User: Which sequence fits this backbone?
């Protein structure tokens, strides 16, 4: 490894200090509002307040053009100091977690086995996520990381153009992207982005436990449900990648939990926390809007006994909290485009309520009518046996337990059994992309199903009662062991992560060997941290020994993070080069721009055209500025400007270009007036030195103008202008893709070409 970079140390300490300040403020706020509540409710409230503060800071400073470390650090410090004025009714200790509400030592053996298995799996995911860079597949490289990187370089939140035909993502609600921005800012790098969803999976388990207990479950049943939530293969896969779906699931169930708690206790803090979680849910995905019907119904039902005045003030208060924590994205869209749900067109019975660029035809293009997709989704994200177990919990004991709850007067909790089915119905009818890949949109239903499992598992400690828990252990183990050879790709993800970690430490991990110091340091920090939390009562260690353990764990954590960041900077593009032709192209860009930056001290500017995943072009430490320039004379316009100002009909093309399918599917009004001279002029204005071109994906080829070899039309323009563009690298590889309208996979070349822009 290279010599240690001391600049890394202070940046990591700055990141930890910012998070510690916000976490302290969140914990004090939760303690002030929920001093007498169960510790799980306090932890859940603190987590929601932690993320709400980060969203508030990032959004307020981002829209104000103040995305820089001093501004963010000052805001975190202000929240920390402000929280010191909160009055805490009593002293609250973290050790209550291990001895009060949960009481791990009193749980049944099968439940303890589930918790140990879950802890091992999540620890592996956390180690993997912290040490390894974000993998190149999926939405992370399309926009989850791409948008925060652009915002960080621009110093403000803006609408970001994407390098291919679909521009919808830039108008999405982007709360989790604000969290990625928060993590990337101190280091000016993404080295912790891969672990961003680890808090979400942990809080999701806490939420499952708390909701099951609130509904009347025993400690064993609730703990088993929480452990199952940590062992869902789809959740473990997502926990170690830069996506948003675990947060999406968490905020839905947390909002439902706090709505129930507010209904029971009529506590203002629970009302506000319900609104915060609901708002964070709305700010995570636009799909949260239809899913919010399942939160709106109990909210209205709980208001039925309130007078008109209280109901009105409660509705206004809830609306204000929703806007502050996530609804502001929709207001932004409404102010800029006239449609809060832009680019989606909202119509009712043929009457357009909000005009948009994406009609019903466009949105239902990938909508399937095959009901077998639910079985395939269950196999992919749950594993067959875990899916069967959760299904049996619902279909058999679930209905009986619902009737029992109704007889005991807790009929509001019967609604919990409706939630997974209702989410499935909304996924099928309202979600435009109800295909196998987007089965992750059912994660809220899976999380709710885990809470139901905790509710219906018996409280009895008899042999029969204990025996009923063992199938849960067997189902979880079976779901995590089957693997791709059983038709469930990646369900053995936790096993493969631990195998990679152990091989790295043993020196048998190949490219992973350099990560051994990071893995070892972080694993030791985890072990010491667990000892410090659990050791006060279980092991009866002294206060001095506990303090020493905490300090040693912190030192190992900092060392592990430094090793991790150093490892990622040295090997990131070696890993990416193994991801196919596009990854090899990214490595070429990294090598060229590193030399340019070293020789000139200037940040290179790279233009991206074609392929969906542009994030790999930023280089180590987000060195490069990555842009997508317009293809006409409107260099500052965004997609909504074109959609509102120009006719959306597509101009035909010639010279070997295919016009694609009908424009109603994915409108290309931003490319209607494409002109090579304007595009080159825009490149010059942006200071571009390198153009990275990748072939379009099979879906994009169906609606976007492209050359006969699959590149967007800009590549043909560069080939026709050797006086302005020199091709310096090219590679291609035939891969099997299923083109739209084809009955079987057929070879389509995946190719990359890199051009240098020559002076005029």
Assistant:
């Amino acid at each position: 490894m290279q010599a240690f970079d001391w600049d890394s140390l202070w940046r990591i300490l700055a990141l930890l200090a910012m998070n510690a300040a916000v976490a302290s403020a969140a914990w004090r706020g939760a303690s002030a509002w929920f001093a007498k509540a169960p510790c799980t409710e306090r932890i859940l409230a603190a987590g929601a307040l932690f993320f709400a503060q980060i969203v508030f800071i990032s959004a307020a400073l981002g829209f104000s053009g103040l995305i820089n470390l001093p501004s963010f650090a000052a805001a975190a410090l202000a929240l920390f100091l402000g929280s010191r004025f909160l009055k805490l009714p009593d002293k609250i200790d973290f050790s209550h977690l291990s001895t009060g509400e949960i009481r791990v030592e009193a749980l049944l053996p099968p439940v303890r086995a589930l918790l140990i298995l879950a802890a091992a799996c999540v620890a592996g995911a956390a180690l993997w996520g912290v040490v390894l860079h974000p993998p190149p597949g999926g939405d992370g490289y399309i926009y989850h990381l791409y948008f925060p990187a652009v915002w960080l370089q621009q110093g403000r939140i803006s609408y970001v153009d994407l390098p291919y035909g679909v521009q919808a993502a830039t108008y999405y609600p982007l709360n989790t992207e604000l969290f990625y921005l928060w993590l990337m800012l101190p280091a000016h790098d993404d080295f912790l982005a891969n672990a961003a969803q680890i808090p979400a999976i942990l809080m999701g388990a806490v939420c499952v436990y708390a909701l099951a207990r609130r509904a009347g479950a025993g400690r064993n049943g609730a703990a088993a449900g929480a452990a199952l939530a940590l062992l869902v293969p789809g959740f473990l896969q997502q926990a170690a990648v830069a996506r948003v779906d675990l947060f999406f699931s968490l905020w839905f169930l947390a909002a439902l939990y706090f709505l129930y708690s507010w209904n029971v206790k009529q506590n203002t803090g629970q009302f506000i926390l319900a609104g915060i979680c609901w708002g964070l849910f709305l700010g995570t995905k636009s799909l949260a809007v239809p899913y919010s019907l399942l939160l709106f119904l109990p909210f209205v039902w709980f208001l039925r006994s309130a007078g008109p005045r209280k109901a009105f003030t409660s509705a206004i208060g809830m609306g204000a909290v929703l806007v502050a924590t996530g609804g502001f994205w929709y207001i932004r869209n409404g102010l800029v485009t006239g449609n809060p749900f832009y680019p989606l067109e909202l119509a009712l019975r043929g009457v357009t309520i909000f005009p948009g660029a994406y009609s019903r035809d466009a949105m239902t293009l990938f909508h399937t009518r095959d009901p077998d997709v639910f079985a395939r989704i269950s196999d992919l994200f749950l594993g067959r046996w875990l899916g069967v177990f959760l299904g049996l919990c619902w279909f058999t004991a679930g209905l009986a337990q619902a009737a029992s709850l109704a007889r005991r007067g807790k009929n509001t909790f019967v609604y919990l059994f409706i939630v997974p089915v209702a989410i499935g119905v909304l996924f099928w009818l309202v979600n435009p992309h109800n295909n196998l890949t987007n089965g992750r949109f059912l994660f809220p239903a899976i999380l709710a199903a885990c809470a139901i499992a905790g509710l219906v598992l018996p409280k009895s400690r008899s042999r029969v009662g204990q025996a009923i828990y063992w199938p849960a252990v067997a189902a979880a183990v079976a779901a995590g062991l089957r693997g791709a050879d059983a038709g469930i790709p990646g369900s053995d993800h936790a096993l493969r992560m631990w195998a990679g970690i152990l091989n790295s430490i043993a020196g048998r991990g190949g490219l992973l060997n350099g990560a051994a110091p990071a893995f070892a340091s972080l694993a030791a920090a985890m072990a010491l941290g667990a000892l410090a939390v659990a050791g006060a009562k279980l092991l009866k260690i002294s206060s001095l020994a506990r303090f020493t353990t905490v300090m040693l764990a912190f030192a190992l954590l900092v060392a592990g993070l430094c090793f991790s960041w150093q490892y990622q900077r040295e090997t990131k593009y070696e890993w990416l080069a193994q991801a196919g032709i596009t990854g090899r192209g990214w490595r070429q860009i990294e090598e060229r721009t590193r030399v340019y930056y070293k020789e000139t001290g200037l940040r290179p500017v790279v233009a991206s055209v074609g392929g969906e995943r542009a994030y790999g072009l930023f280089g180590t430490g987000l060195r490069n500025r990555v842009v997508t320039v317009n293809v006409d004379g409107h260099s500052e316009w965004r997609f909504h400007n074109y959609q509102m100002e120009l006719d959306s009909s597509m101009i035909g093309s010639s010279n070997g270009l295919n016009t694609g399918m009908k424009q109603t599917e994915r409108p290309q009004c931003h490319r209607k007036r494409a002109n090579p001279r304007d595009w080159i002029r825009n490149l010059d204005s942006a200071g571009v030195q390198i153009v990275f071109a990748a072939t379009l994906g099979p879906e994009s080829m169906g609606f976007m103008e492209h050359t006969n070899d699959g590149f967007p039309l800009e590549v043909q323009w560069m080939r026709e202008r050797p006086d302005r563009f020199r091709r310096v690298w090219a590679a291609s590889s035939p891969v099997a893709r299923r083109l739209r309208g084809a009955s079987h996979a057929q070879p389509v070349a995946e190719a990359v070409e890199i051009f240098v822009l020559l002076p005029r």
